[in-house]
Amino acid sequence: MADMSDSIRIIIDEEMIGLHACGCDYLFDYRTGLVSLKIAGKEWLYNAPQPAFWRATTDNDRGNGFSRRSAQWAGADLFSAAGIPTLVVDGKPVAIPYTPADGSTGGQLYASEASLGYTFTTPTVPATKVDVCYTLDPAGCLTVSVHYHGKPRLPELPTFGLRMVMPTLATGFTYFGLPGETYPDRLGSGEKRIVEVEGMPVTPYLVPQECGMHMDTDWVRITRDSTLNNADAALAPFSLTFACKDRPFAFSCLPYTPLELENATHQEELPPARRTVLTIYGAVRGIGGIDSWGAPVGEKHSISGKKDIDFSFVIRP
Q1: How far apart are CA 21 and CA 40, in angstroms?
Q2: CA separation (Å) from 243 to 201, 234, 314?
Q3: Which residues contact 50 (CB under 8 A, 6 or more apart)?
Q4: For the chain, what is the largest distance between any 2 Cα atoms, rounded to a whole number of angstroms?
Q5: Ordered mean pLDDT values, 10 residues apiece, the chain (317 residues)
Q6: Which residues does 235 contact at the CB level (< 8 Å), separation at least 6?
Q7: Could you tell me the pTM of the whole model?
Q8: Is the CB of residue 270 less than 8 Å from the CB of residue 260?
């Protein structure tokens, strides 16, 4: 264990673990995962991040029946459950709940690195698991590593990622990647560059469906100017950056979850926009319909439920 001069402070009680470094505060619930992410006092989470498996059904999905074949991933998107985490401090496992030398419950540690790992179990048949590991460094940067365990007999996935819901609407986002809306089989011909987007545009299809995907992204910075704390009078914009670690990722930043889009049969049926729904993806299914409506997605642009998937990214203050 590190001494008090190190930058990361770890506070453990019977139900929560807090990690604090360089003005960044991360609070973890034993049962659900990361429940609070505060940078300079501004809250960035409405609830705990969850593995993302579903995308709103596209017109082409309806035409080829994909959503019916893969419907159990919609349930996994909603109801996958996390288990008790594992805590590793400076390379050494720490028992949870932590018991100090004096025998009391809970306590405080200091470290140069701390990792918390959660394993989610899906309600699919057969069930499978997703590992999500959060690693904090002394600069306050949080590396998030996600691993899907492929399993035979599971259907193709619509997507695979990690979804984070923020408590208020983003005023916009900036990213370094391909301009416009892109998918594995709809990449366009543009070169990667810095792109600034005002608000969180939802493509105005007659029937709301999957939209807003951005492939091959190096980083995305989300900007907000409001919190849920009415006592916070500071309306100056504040931002948070999500950067790739080993390879570029895909992302979407929308005011709705996939199932909110799914439930609306017309644009006017969408609920009032209240939150920011940011999803970082390690795998994205193509759109299909290359030569006709309802044409299936090619194998190259589909996501097998049988194969493992890994991706990681860094949350930077």
Answers
A1: 11
A2: 22, 26, 5
A3: 33, 77, 80, 120, 162, 163
A4: 71
A5: 68 93 96 95 96 96 93 97 95 81 70 97 98 97 98 97 97 97 86 96 95 97 84 77 97 98 95 97 88 77 97 96
A6: 225, 226
A7: 0.93
A8: yes
